[in-house]
Amino acid sequence: MNRRAPRRWAAIALSGLTIGALAACSPSADPGTGGNGGSGSGDEVVLTWWHNGTGEPLLGFWEDVAAEFEEANPGVRVDVTAYQNEELQRTLIPNQLRTGGGLDLYQQWGAGELAAQVEAGFVKDISAEVSERVDQMGGVVAPWQFDGATYGLPFNFGISGFWYNTELFAEAGIEGTPETLDELYDAIEALKAAGIVPIAVGAGDGWPAAHYWYHFVLKSCSPEILQEAQVSYTFDDPCFEEAGALLEEFIASEPFNPGFLATSAQQGAGSSAGQVATGAAAMELMGHWNPGVMGGILQEETGDENATPPEFLGWFNFPAIPGAAGDATAALGGGDGFSCTAWSPPECTDLLNYITSVEVQTRFGEIGAGIPVTPGSEAGISDVNLLQVLEGLQASTYVQLWLDTAYGPTVGGAMNEGIVNLFGGQGSPTAIVDNMRNAAATL
Amino acid sequence: MSLTTTSTGSAATAAGPVPPSPALPRASRSRQKSRGLLLIWIFVAPALIVYVTFVLVPVALAAVYSFFNWNGLGALDRFIGFDNYIRALSDPIFLGAMTNNFLIVVLSLLIQGPLAIGIALLLNRPLRGRALIRTLVFVPYVLSEVVAGLAFRLMLPPGGPLDTMLTSIGWTGDKPLWLADPDVAFWTLFAVITWKYLGFAIILMLAGLQGVPEELSEAAAIDGASWWQTQRHITLPLLGPTIRIWAFLSMIGSLQLFDMVWILTGGGPLNATETMATYMVEYGNGRSQIGYGSAVAVILFVVSLVIALLYQRYVLRRDMRGAITRG
Fold it and tell me: How far is A204 from chain B (nearest CA, A)?
């Protein structure tokens, strides 16, 4: 035998390994086998669960929930992983769904995006398995339903409003919180006079700026027009342009932090949430998750693992505009939920039912990460601000889902872009609606 | 020049296949030949499989997707011909992104090139602490794009470390909004790119300078040429091949620029720093229009390919002569 032979065999073995490795990487052709999800070795069932809670307390909370579920269900292993929100929503989930495996339970924002996933056959119809829970939760499940069937359940639902620094408000001599738009303008002027940046906005991320327009739309358009627009993608009613005009006027009062066009919403002390958390700005219009985000930023900035959301934080609903055509008691909001993939094992819905149980939801409220959805779990909410958000939610007769979620990424992205252009002085109320129409035409 | 090509040429000949010995019997020869072929396949296969799977197949798939209106999830059944291409090429934001790419190509060649050559010439002279300076110059290139991008993002916000430093050295007035002003952000981006990639250009030029024979400079010095004349008439012409290769790499890199922009500005504010690649990710992936994004990807691919081929055909031709063996 010549001496080179072993080396040759090594080469053959190596190329064999390479081919094997590549074959292992390629997506499973049959969604039924579920990649590495659902069919673990032997009798073990593996559930792969992806969520966006990369910061504490949510990260540890979901890990605890997964461990409890494993303990209660011998033979089930739950692989729970957190991914950064935008990466998860725009890249990881769509790509993984296309492979037809490797994912069982995943974060679901609902509405437009859910519809696209359902139409492509990637989401499991869980109507029968969760019917009890749906009856319990009521109308709040609507964004996770499509064509009369349920494709996911929310675990967190809240509305958007102004998070503000009570100490800076006092410093500027503002008493109470603004109830009308005019009072908000007065507060902005008072803060400016005191040398305080009135509002931080993460326009660099697009959607935080867009929320202003959504609120003005809610003030200008009736719920009927909004519901119709969501279905037919018609934005012909003049109320949409009126909202743009209101926003244009608001931007002209120059309430925002310097350099807001490049400010991100949630990353670091320079972000809009960071600016409010560190006292550099007085207000931010944001969803109910904001205290959790601020707590996370303070943990990173101070190195103190136990840092909590700032104590000076207060909350008030978006001010009313007397005489506006929209429903005065309507609110803008949205939530987070989970869906099971079409190929997930039955244990996936069991886990979802456990996550949305009163017991887990009560604890979810206790950690202050958000507002639990399942009735009976409100008792867990101890955070004063979240209680105020909950009050606002309960007082509203109509809750409009975030418009970009409601319209889906194509129209939503174009809409947000038009709104950010208006913030940057390069757009117009008409251009926003034109952007939406053009994008809808490409669907 | 001639030295380089000769040595490459002879190296290529030396590495060529050795003719089989005529003394071997026919059967043995053919067995040896097939064994040789097998061996070639075994060694080429892993690379070939990876190349086909991760380069050729995705390119072909992108070309297919680009003719469909596809959100990336459902069936690929809405064929729309060239609509995606027409849409991209008539979108002012995409055309703006393309303009930004070409502007970066031109600025890189005009600013980074001369700067790199100048610094390389200086660093090629006997100098105390030369090794240290060379290392320092190269450090930015070694840093990952994400790390460097984040560092600048943290330094550049209004009232951030850069503004504080500028105030402390006497600039007390309002500072530009480095990343937030659409008129300024592109130039900030270009400055960061120059900081990041200049080191690479300098190292390439320094390597090229090592190939310039010292005897020529010495002969010129004896003939009474000044340092400047020596550089102008001897060093620079002999550095030609290196400069041309660097320009090629710089152009392709500028056309495909993505990561630094994505981290630093995300293409904003108001699309002021959008490049073809960031546009592709944002409008294709971000808005669930994979078909449209694929069309943008194909346009980016074709633009880069055409420029690369033209450059090779007309500029690199002399440098390539003799370097490629044709059989």
Answer: 7
